[in-house]
Amino acid sequence: MDTIVMKFGGSSVADNDKLKLVANKIIDLYEKENNIVVILSAQGKTTDKLIQEVLELSENTEDREMDMLLSSGEQISIAKLSILLNGMGYKAISLTGWQAGILTNNTNQNAIIKNIDTSRILKELKDRKIVIIAGFQGFNENLDITTLGRGGSDTSAIAIAAALNAKECYIFSDVDGIYTADPYKVEDAKKLPALSYNEMIEISSEGAKVLHNRCAEIGDKFKIPIITKSTFNNKAGTIITDIIEENTIKSIVKKDISRISIVGNGIIRNVDFIKNVLDLIQGEKLDMLEFNVSESKISIDFKGVVEDKILEKIHNKIINEIQE
């Protein structure tokens, strides 16, 4: 029986109606004779709300106590989903990070996973339970709760998938895959059916929020296919594996207010493409500070703010020329 890991972000579990959508997606894969392990983020803006509330009490917060506080959001999510699934007639159990055996180093707020003792997870799976684990958290050698920092639930999901030698790791969010640009900023952005791990790492490191770069790095190390999909529809997502297409531009990402990056394997060998990018920038009369080229990325830092309409213009010219 295959094991599948499913991670749902905060927008996917924001309220009871959305939790019911999540439950149905889990049941669909469970009834296909799979072992199911689910990783959840805190509901909606819970983490941000907790941070704001505690800063109203004191601006001098201790990292250990912040981890104790922030980890509570995921605990609420996993308990609610477990209660829902059991009420629907499916055996489920919720586990905190320490109950799931996720041992980290001693760094609070940005801990690194050292080891996962899977014995409790495997025991529950053997009983055909759906195992629901709090993302973003673990415990250290002092038995203190730790949190994994930004994108921590993604990291939890792929690390657990690796420890269980899972067949696949699904990352569900409010976006149905990885696009050639941010679809909220670029109307003609197109969904990518597949990416290599390296391309995904580059896209994530440049600010794309669909998947954290640590998740892609662990997926690459253990060769666990990662599938990004939407919780709110059944459209095909984007699969991230070690398959590489040479000399193909995949995505254009705007980071912060003055940096644009173009990601795709083999960029450094595509001299004509690099020249075309420089010509495009000159034609738009954009003032560059730096222009860096690596194996799979061009990073351009501009002087001053780069508006989204410039991102859209660059994206459409580059992507359309590639597809013609």
Note the beta-strand portion: 15-25%
Count of β-strands: 16
Overall average pLDDT: 90
Rounded to an integer in angstroms, the radius of gyration calculated over CA atoms is 21 Å
Helix content: 25-40%
Question: What is the string of helix and strand elements?
Answer: EHEHHEEEHEEEHEEHHEEEEHEEH
CATH architectural grouping of the largest domain: 3-Layer(aba) Sandwich
Spatial order of strands in the largest sheet:
3-6-2-1-9-11-12-10
Shape: globular
How many domains, in number, for the residues? 2
CATH homologous superfamily title of the largest domain: Acetylglutamate kinase-like
The number of helical segments is: 9
CATH fold field value of the largest domain: Carbamate kinase
- Low-pLDDT stretches are none
CATH class of the largest domain: Alpha Beta
Q: Termini distance?
A: 44 Å
Class per helix and strand makeup: alpha/beta
- Largest pleated sheet: 8 strands, mixed
Description:
The structure is a single chain. The chain is of the alpha/beta class and 324 residues long. The protein folds into 2 domains: 3-174, Acetylglutamate kinase-like (Carbamate kinase); 251-323, 2-Layer Sandwich (Alpha-Beta Plaits), CATH 3.30.70.260. It is 37% helix and 23% strand. The protein contains 9 helices and 16 strands. It has helices at 16-30, 46-57, 63-87, 119-126, 152-163, 197-205, 213-222, 271-283, 308-323; strands spanning 3-8, 35-40, 92-95, 102-104, 113-116, 130-134, 137-139, 145-147, 168-173, 194-196, 226-230, 238-241, 251-255, 259-263, 288-293, 297-302. An 8-stranded mixed sheet has the order 3-6-2-1-9-11-12-10, sandwiched between helices. It has a 4-stranded antiparallel sheet with strand order 13-14-16-15, sandwiched between helices. A hairpin with a 7-residue loop joins strand 11 (226-230) and strand 12. Helix 6 packs antiparallel against helix 7. The chain is globular, with a radius of gyration of 21 Å. The mean pLDDT is 90.
